[in-house]
Every structure is written in structure tokens, then in C-alpha cells.
Amino acid sequence: PDAPVAFQVILPFAGCIFLLHAILAAAFLVIPRLLEQTGVVGAAQGEFYLMSLLASLLLTVPLVLLVKPHKSVLIPVTGAVLVVASLIGLAGNKPALGVALALFFGGFNFLEAWLPAGASLASGRQRRGELLGAYSTAQFLGVFAGGAGGGLIAATFGVQAIVVAVGLLGVLLLAGVVYAASTQSATLSRG
Prior knowledge:
Layout: H1 3-37, H2 43-70, H3 74-88, H4 94-123, H5 128-157, H6 160-190
């Protein structure tokens, strides 16, 4: 694709990975504190994360296996919905936090695999390298923005405000994934 088309193709994917990593960084400014509030402290937090991560594989693996043969917009959107839905559970008790983390890790890990693959497929062979470079840059900028923005929000409005902020970012992520998946679908159908 020429430069304007290439920009239109990569922007949705780069925007999504930026948002996904901003959510990750900002959420993990508050999640350890939320776990402490429910009685999960010290080394028990590591165990809690591990169990949530293992449980998330029950979501991630089927999504990864389904996405390629079906090429449906619905499957990537499901990954984003998992991330957004998980943010609702952050305000809950210990079991709700466990479910929320499993949903988050499931959606996050699926999108972490689907987004670069989708960007690569949608970009075409000629511009793949430069477009994936832009994608990678957006990924690291998202971590920076999430950490810095989350810290600023916590300092200004309190730690609980981070949950609201990542929820809003999650809604943007969901919209971005819908757009990116439809972009990829349209690009692949053109050949």
C-alpha cells in the first residue's frame, strides 16, 4: 500500500496496542493495592497472579485457535470485551479480583498475539517492516503513558481513580479493536 493507505492500515493496530499497554501499566499501579485490601499480601500476590494467569489460558487458547480459521471480527472483539469486563471486577472482593485478573490476562494475551498478526497481515509485504516498527513503538509508548498517566491520576485524584481511567481506556480499546478487525477483514478480502 502507498503511504496514506499504509498509515490507515497500521493506525488502528498501533492505537490498540498503545491502549492495551497503557491499561496494563496503569492497572498494575492499583491492582497490588486492591489485592492487599482483600487480604492478599506479600508472596501470596505472586501466587494469586500465577493462578489467574493459568486460569486465563482457558480463555486465551480457544480464542487463538478459533481466530485463524474463522477470520471473524467477533473473535478479536471478544478479546477486547474480556479486557473491559475484567476492569469491572477490580472494585470487588478477592474472588471477583481473581476472576477479573483471569479475564484480563485472557483478553490481554489474546490481543497481544492477534494485534501484531493482524497488523502484519493487513499491512502487506512491501511495508510490513516499517509498519511493525511503528506498531512496536506504540506498544512501548503505551507502557510509558499508562505508567506516567496512572501515577499522575493517582497523585491527583487517588488510586481508585485509576480504575475509572482504565475503564475509559478499555472502552476506547474495544472501539479500536472493532475498527482494526474490520480493517484487517476488508484488507484481506481485497486480496
